[in-house]
Amino acid sequence: MNSSKHTELANHAWSVADLLRGDYKQSDYGKVILPFTVLRRLECVLEPTRQKVAEEVARFEDQDIDTDHFLRRASGHSFYNKSDLTLKKIAADPQNTAQLLQIYVAGFSDNAREVLDKYEFAQQIRKLDDADLLYKVIGKFTDLDLHPEKVPNHNMGYIFEELIRRFAEQSNETAGEHFTPREVIKLMVNLLIAPDGDALSLPGVVRTVMDPACGTGGMLSAAEEHIRAYNEDATVEVYGQELNPESWAICRSDLMIKGQDPENIAYGNSFSDDGHKREKFDYLLANPPFGVEWKKVKEAVEYEHEHLGEAGRFAAGLPRINDGSLLFLQHMISKMKPVDVHGGGGSRIAIVFNGSPLFTGAAGSGESEIRRWILENDWLEAIVALPDQLFYNTGISTYFWILTNRKAPDHKGRVVLLDARDQWQKMRKSLGDKRKELGKQHIADVTRLYGEAIGAAADPEHPLHGKVKVFDNEAFGYQRVTVERPLKLRFEVTEETLTALAAAKPVQKLADADAFVSAVRTLTGSSWATKSEALIALKDAVVAAGLLWPAGAPFAKAVRDMVGVRDPEGEVQLVRGESEPDGELRDYENVPLGEDVEEYLKREVHPHVPDAWIDHTKTKVGYEIPFTRHFYVYEPPRPLAEIDAELKALEAEIQGLLSEVAE
């Protein structure tokens, strides 16, 4: 079947929109057209075995047994319908259309009926019936020939995807939530699968593909299509999970329509209710929502992190509550197939992120620990920067992360950074925030450069040498060191220090606190260079007033803190013979992983502050991937003479225009 036939059938289904206009918002057309397309396809698929199913229904009519297995076997599919109704019969009875259609839908097997329920099909039936449109819509679909001999499963997939695309375009405000641009998926799947081209062309090859945030299934369809491009006889099994009920229904419908097992698409939250526990896959890909909080599943995720450890998915760490992106990645990594002793097995992962997971989170944070875990296990193969304004619901920059546990020998211990931000063309018509798209040539060029990345980075003569860089895994690690400087104080009694002394808790607890402060007040205007001199003078004043000086180091420290004033030339304060650090002068430095921090201190810090030292007990290891920094190209400012000349030219032009107006 050629593409024009796909379009013709999709146009026929979408022509129902003419009937809906006025009673439905444009963005809601798909809520009618998609489930009716599914219903018509299921009817056409089941038609050859309707009689066999009817005979099985009659055979078990009065028996109290589960007939599901027998009816599936009779239908020859994973679904069936027990009713003797058809859409044509229902359309022929306009007075009872709604009632008959509900009976017809109720006759489907649970898995098919569940899909229609998620479309809120019963609600659409009532709405169409109230508008006196139901029998007209059904009539339109009875004319749509979707029998498998005319429209094979693969071609039906194209038609349904075209309807999904139109639905997404009509509802721009939510398109990005369940629809990733086709050309972005194409590039993503290329980078995910291209290195395995030879293996995929082998006879009898079987591959499993999984998307834990599958939306309407666009990525799964593209991956399946791409694998079949290498080998038409390949067996491709797709799996997914989706939280949005409507998107889940669309994806599951797509699988039913293509003859795949719809049970492979789980419904629910991937974090709290993993629909594919203990399962492993060859390829995993996802475009999870950006910056979406995971507060609703916080309890389940934290329990798994704290109690299951390495046996769970989130042992590496938990990101901040307002962005669950790195939870999706950990979830996907948990589903990679292990690599056997001969180097076989293993998996590849591709995921779309915004810039946040590259660098958000300081050393020791959940995000940094997750990046550390990934890099230290040598799973990150590459990060590809994409143009901005590629997606429907956001104009921000995005990145592909490509991971695998079976890196090629020349990739081991290394990460490729590929800058594809200039690979785009302007769209003829914007769709939401999407103003740019990847052309076929852009996709081909980026795919080719990805395959040549190691060589291109090493060859200064390569035409795209500046667009790709390769780093050792450790290059993204750093040591977060705490640089301390000594606390230096001079000591004085002023109105300010007296106020602070009176407010200090150890002083307020004294039975004669006011008398104590009054005794110290007699020293107003006095100052001392050392702590010992100050304390002796204070004690003498207190004793002279007939009071006892309270014993204990905590009290003495409190008094010191109140009358001590920071002074670069002051006395260095000691604790057990060691310099006491000044919290206000504390600083932090990021030292590359593997570099001697003491050597760094001597080279970078001591020339400016010779008395600084590193508190090694506070050192943390962190990981970040500063992508844009590695591709930054300095552009010198324009010469002042050039700017001045341009201003003078503009001034002359304005004067000329004004003189024309004056004339």
From TrEMBL:
InterPro entries: D12N6_MeTrfase_N, DNA_Adenine_Mtase, DNA_methylase_A-5, DNA_methylase_N6_adenine_CS, SAM-dependent_MTases_sf, T1MK-like_N_sf. It is an enzyme of class 2 (transferase). The keyword S-adenosyl-L-methionine applies. It catalyses: a 2'-deoxyadenosine in DNA + S-adenosyl-L-methionine = an N(6)-methyl-2'-deoxyadenosine in DNA + S-adenosyl-L-homocysteine + H(+). PROSITE patterns: N6_MTASE. Keywords: Methyltransferase, Restriction system, S-adenosyl-L-methionine, Transferase. Gene3D superfamilies: 1.20.1260.30, Vaccinia Virus protein VP39. Residues 154-453 form the DNA methylase adenine-specific domain. The keyword Transferase applies. GO terms for molecular function: methyltransferase activity. One of its GO terms (biological process) is methylation. It holds the Pfam family HsdM_N. SUPFAM superfamilies: S-adenosyl-L-methionine-dependent methyltransferases. PANTHER family: SLR6095 PROTEIN, TYPE I RESTRICTION ENZYME MJAVIII METHYLASE SUBUNIT. Belongs to the N(4)/N(6)-methyltransferase family. This is site-specific DNA-methyltransferase (adenine-specific). It comes from Streptomyces vulcanius.
